[in-house]
Amino acid sequence: MSKHALSLVLTLCLAATALAGKPRHGDKWIIGMSQCNLGEPWRVQMNADILKAARAHPELEVVFKDAQNDTLAQAAQIGEFVNAEVDLLIVSPKEAAPLTPPVAEAFRRGIPVVVLDRRVLGGDYTQFIGADNRRIGRAAGEWIARRLAALPRMKAGGRARLVELKGLMTSTPGQDRDAGFREAIKGAPVDIVFEADMKWLEPEARKEMESALAVNEQIDLVYAHNDPGAHGAYLAAKAAGREGDILFVGIDGLPQEGQAYVRQRLLAASFEYPTGGKEAVASALRILNGESVPKEVALESRVFTPDNVARGGDSL
Ligand code: FRU
C-alpha cells in the first residue's frame, strides 16, 4: 500500500472511531446547542427540555449559546462550536438560507448535526426534528373555516374578515404555516383583509395589529403563526376596546402560555408545536453511540380549545 493510501485508511479509521467510539475531549460527550433566540417562552422551554433530557445521562454535557435573534451571531457561534471540536451539534436556526453554509461546514468537518424546529436548505446535516408546519397550518385553516362558518353573519351569506400575522418569512415554519393555512381556506368565504410579517415577536404583532385595527372596522379573526403573536394582537384589540368582537388563534400551545390563554378564553384555539428538545437528546445519544438515525423525525401536534384544554387537547 502506498504511503498516501495508508494515511487515507488511517484517517478514515480515526473518523469512524471519533463517531462511534470515545468523546473527543475528556470522558464526556460535548454537545453544542446553538439556540437562535431566548426571547420567547417556547425557546426557553426548548433549552429546558434539552437540559432535562441530558441530565439523565451523566456521559453528556451540553453547552448552550444564544444568538439573541441575530443570524450573523448564530453563524459565528456555530463556527465557534466547530473550532472547539464539539462531539455533536444541535442547531435551531433563525433563518434557513444564511445558516445553511455554517451548518453544512460543521457537517462536512465530521460533526453530526441535529437541526431542530426551523430548517436549513439542502441536506448537509444528520437529522431534522420538528412537527409538520404545513400540516399545522392546514389544520388551523380548517378549524378557522369551520369556526367562522358558525358566525351568524356568515350563516346569512356574508364573508369573514381575517388578519394573518406571519412568523419570520425567511424561516421555514413561517412559510409552511402560511402555505398550509391558505391551502385550507381556499374556496371558503373568507377574506384576508390584512397580513404582515411580525417576525415571531409579540411587540411586532401588537404594532401590526394596531395598523390592522386602524384600517378595518370589522375583523372577525386573527390567525397568528405563534402564541406570542396572537397575544400581541389580543392586547392591541383590547387597548382599542375591540377584543370582544374578534377571535384569536395561535400556535405553540405551551401549558404556561397558549394553553393558559385558551383557559382564560383570550385565545379561541392554540395549536401545539412541540419543542423536540427531548427527542434531540435521544437522537444525539444514538448518533454518538454509532447508530444510524433517520434523516427526518416528524413530531405530532394537538389543538387546544376552551372545550378540550382541561382534558389535554385533541390530536390533529
Ligand atoms: C419562537 C418561535 C415559536 C415558533 C417557533 C417557530 O422563537 O417563534 O413561537 O413556534 O419559533 O420556529
Helix and strand topology:
Blueprint: H1 3-20, E1 29-35, H2 41-55, E2 60-66, H3 71-83, E3 88-92, H4 96-108, E4 113-116, E5 127-131, H5 133-149, H6 152-155, E6 160-166, H7 172-185, E7 190-197, H8 202-215, E8 221-224, H9 227-239, E9 247-252, H10 258-263, E10 269-272, H11 277-288, E11 296-299, E12 302-304, E13 314-315
Parallel strand pairs: 1-2, 1-3, 3-4, 4-5, 5-11, 6-7, 6-8, 8-9, 9-10
Antiparallel strand pairs: 10-12, 12-13
The structure holds beta-D-fructofuranose (FRU).
User: Could you tell me how far the N terminus lies from the C terminus, measured between alpha carbons in angstroms?
Assistant: 59 Å
CATH class of the largest domain: Alpha Beta
User: What order do the SSEs take from the amino end to the carboxyl end, as H and E?
Assistant: HEHEHEHEEHHEHEHEHEHEHEEE
Coarse morphology: elongated
The low-confidence runs, each spanning 5 or more residues with pLDDT under 50, are 1-18
Radius of gyration based on Cα positions: 22 Å
CATH homologous superfamily descriptor of the largest domain: Response regulator
- Major beta sheet summary: 7 strands, mixed
Structural class: alpha/beta
Number of helices: 11
Count every beta strand, where a strand is a DSSP E run of 2 or more residues. 13
CATH architecture of the largest domain: 3-Layer(aba) Sandwich
- Return the average pLDDT rounded to an integer: 93
Q: Report the sheet-strand fraction.
A: 15-25%
CATH fold name of the largest domain, please?
Answer: Rossmann fold
